[in-house]
Write a structure and sequence with these properties.
With 208 residues, this protein is an alpha+beta fold. It contains nine helices and four strands. The longest helix is centred in the middle third of the chain and has 35 residues.
Amino acid sequence: MSLKLHAFPRSPRGFKVLALADHLGLDYEQCFVDLGKGQQKSAQFLALNPNGKMPVLEEDGFSLWESNAILTYLAGKKPTAGLLPTDERGRADVMRWMFWDSAHWDSTCAIFIYENWVKAVFGVGAPDPSEIAKGEQRFHQFAAVLEAQLKTHKFICGEKPSIADFAIASPLIIAETAKFPLADYPQIRRWYEEMASLPAWKKAMAAR
């Protein structure tokens, strides 16, 4: 099998590439990256991604890092699935939200994930109240943008999911544990339930 996905499935960034690959019905080999043992810093892994982070896609001598770039690449393998539109405006709309995720949403959610989940899992201390406060300010700023979009769209860019939905929904797999302040965002909660009902999402959740 030529396609390999190097990932830590419990991480939202690793989870989303696995969920999308399953949703597309792609044949791939899942290569577990043990973050707890620092496997991402090994010489073998750094040869694939010099940043020392997962996930990484490997295929026939080609390696690709950055989770949203991987989603785009995977979607290109099954263009008829409709997860990445072929018309210019539709594609630009999806990519707009992918860039929004990378610039704003992912890093905001990461504050809660690190403070309330990673620290506990790896035993590196208690949550920092100042970081949580910063995270709450940013979360409400960007969640309001997403909530407004989802008031008029079933999924982020229309009536069907796209790679933007896989990217932006992935941090919510641990929203409860990471204590995301979602109470005032009914459309985000509704939309996440739609994503969580997908068979591939359920499969990836079970694999965690």
